[in-house]
Amino acid sequence: LPAGPDLRHFLRAAAAGQPGPSPELPPEPGSIPGAPKVYLETYGCQMNVSDTEIVWAILQKNGYARTKELNEADVILLVTCSVREKAEQAIWKRLQHLKALKGRRRQARAPLRVGILGCMAERLKEEILHREKLVDVVAGPDAYRDLPRLLAVAESGQQAANVLLSLDETYADILPVQTSAGGTTAFVSIMRGCDNMCSYCIVPFTRGRERSRPIASILQEVKMLSDQGVKEVTLLGQNVNSFRDLSEVQFQSVAAPGLSRGFSTVYKAKPGGLRFSHLLDQVSRIDPEMRIRFTSPHPKDFPDEASTVKLSETSPDHLPQVLQLIQERHNICKQLHLPAQSGSTRVLEAMRRGYTREAYLELVHHVRDSIPGVSLSSDFIAGFCGETEEDHLQTVSLLREVRYNVGFLFAYSMRQKTRAHHRLQDDVPTDVKKRRLEQLIATFREEAARANAALVGQAQLVLVEGPSKRSASELCGRNDGNIKVIFPDAELEDAAECGAPGRAQPGDYVMVKVTSASSQTLRGVPLCRTTLSRAAASH
């Protein structure tokens, strides 16, 4: 994800409460000499990476310049996460550092302005504004358009805040400014908010209700990225496969799709609109050399039935559903995120996930039957309210049975406003949570190593992202399953046999024969440079 940084890095960063790395920024064309300089720092999930690009697009249009040097900034904005307590603690700690910087700046020249944006701003507005009077601006996820006004108020020495949640804000008309020049991958936000109301989750309270961008605006953004040379796009949302574009009148009376077998939801089915399968179909047609990923889906929203919406006079009456599209389209990655959260039906009920262990496993089998060789990832929470040792062992056994390629595992962190905070007791001791989490991580790594070992000897198509972090003589990229692949940087033939041998560059596709595997990384030897279409045709 270097046009949005690496997905796993950011999810690990959310757990560790660390900011994303400061991107390398080219000089902004047409920047105004003497324009106020803004420094943006991103914490947490990939949605925050996307939000950072939206914030910068808004500020750039309003006369701000971007800096990657903290000490040069006139305005420092932290895009924050509230999913776990540890991420919030990191922000408070960061603010103490900025307090000292702000004090020094007051004595030297024009005052420094500090802003807290995103989910933590939404959750803790009053505390942020009143704690040591350090923060000048507070803006929730739906208030970024208001940032120029808020910063103008702050310039007069007053604190300014807007944390109003919206029922319709999607920033559809704002084309994000990519934060990495020449990046090979990018995020495209397709919807905001979440209606699922899982009992542990703060997202509906910090990001509001679900609303989807018009498909036309998403296609415009993906086309722009393709024209810029981006080779992989990840469609983003809290619950992407409940996407529902209501912008076109003729589709507003379409019946709601069914849920996955054995799944339920706390809200009524929502009729009308163009669904995620329509979006995925259209996005995959833009550029045959651009990989398409999406995250995060909810397991309940993978219905088996074909859609009955007719997109145009020339389109088929039945559009393939999501799993069929993944299987059929060579540029939709054969990789799926299926967040389980727990392997215990009793705990899943307490979490209000809307499925049993058995229903989840049936879906996994259906996915693997539909998409041979699919790579699976998942999320798990250790030590949720009331979790017994038997519940925990059922999660361990689910990890073994499914054998995920990628996993995101965290200890439970109680969040105010959630249903769990109001109705349940956070009764699993911290040391027990820690032990259970360690066991889940160890089990995941053991099974992921086995899953990845099955790829040894196979050729994998790798999208090159750049040099390996550990060795300048090696390149790093990801395969179709989103697993990191490391291989030597060497002269390579072009599979088309129309170009001279040369070294692979970021954005190139390289066929790599896997020689070794661990739980997180594949290593191999490069065979040739190729294209996405040519590699698909040869299989």
UniProtKB/TrEMBL annotation:
<feature type="domain" description="Radical SAM core">
    <location>
        <begin position="180"/>
        <end position="450"/>
    </location>
</feature>
<comment type="similarity">
    <text>Belongs to the methylthiotransferase family. MiaB subfamily.</text>
</comment>
<keyword id="KW-0408">Iron</keyword>
<protein>
    <recommendedName>
        <fullName>Mitochondrial tRNA methylthiotransferase CDK5RAP1</fullName>
        <ecNumber>2.8.4.3</ecNumber>
    </recommendedName>
</protein>
<keyword id="KW-0479">Metal-binding</keyword>
<dbReference type="InterPro" id="IPR005839">
    <property type="entry name" value="Methylthiotransferase"/>
</dbReference>
<dbReference type="Pfam" id="PF04055">
    <property type="entry name" value="Radical_SAM"/>
</dbReference>
<dbReference type="InterPro" id="IPR007197">
    <property type="entry name" value="rSAM"/>
</dbReference>
<dbReference type="InterPro" id="IPR006638">
    <property type="entry name" value="Elp3/MiaA/NifB-like_rSAM"/>
</dbReference>
<dbReference type="InterPro" id="IPR058240">
    <property type="entry name" value="rSAM_sf"/>
</dbReference>
<dbReference type="GO" id="GO:0051539">
    <property type="term" value="F:4 iron, 4 sulfur cluster binding"/>
</dbReference>
<dbReference type="GO" id="GO:0005829">
    <property type="term" value="C:cytosol"/>
</dbReference>
<dbReference type="Pfam" id="PF00919">
    <property type="entry name" value="UPF0004"/>
</dbReference>
<dbReference type="GO" id="GO:0046872">
    <property type="term" value="F:metal ion binding"/>
</dbReference>
<dbReference type="InterPro" id="IPR038135">
    <property type="entry name" value="Methylthiotransferase_N_sf"/>
</dbReference>
<dbReference type="GO" id="GO:0051246">
    <property type="term" value="P:regulation of protein metabolic process"/>
</dbReference>
<dbReference type="InterPro" id="IPR013848">
    <property type="entry name" value="Methylthiotransferase_N"/>
</dbReference>
<dbReference type="Pfam" id="PF01938">
    <property type="entry name" value="TRAM"/>
</dbReference>
<keyword id="KW-0004">4Fe-4S</keyword>
<feature type="domain" description="TRAM">
    <location>
        <begin position="453"/>
        <end position="528"/>
    </location>
</feature>
<dbReference type="InterPro" id="IPR023404">
    <property type="entry name" value="rSAM_horseshoe"/>
</dbReference>
<dbReference type="InterPro" id="IPR020612">
    <property type="entry name" value="Methylthiotransferase_CS"/>
</dbReference>
<dbReference type="GO" id="GO:0035597">
    <property type="term" value="F:tRNA-2-methylthio-N(6)-dimethylallyladenosine(37) synthase activity"/>
</dbReference>
<dbReference type="GO" id="GO:0005739">
    <property type="term" value="C:mitochondrion"/>
</dbReference>
<feature type="domain" description="MTTase N-terminal">
    <location>
        <begin position="36"/>
        <end position="156"/>
    </location>
</feature>
<dbReference type="InterPro" id="IPR006463">
    <property type="entry name" value="MiaB_methiolase"/>
</dbReference>
<keyword id="KW-0411">Iron-sulfur</keyword>
<keyword id="KW-0949">S-adenosyl-L-methionine</keyword>
<dbReference type="InterPro" id="IPR002792">
    <property type="entry name" value="TRAM_dom"/>
</dbReference>
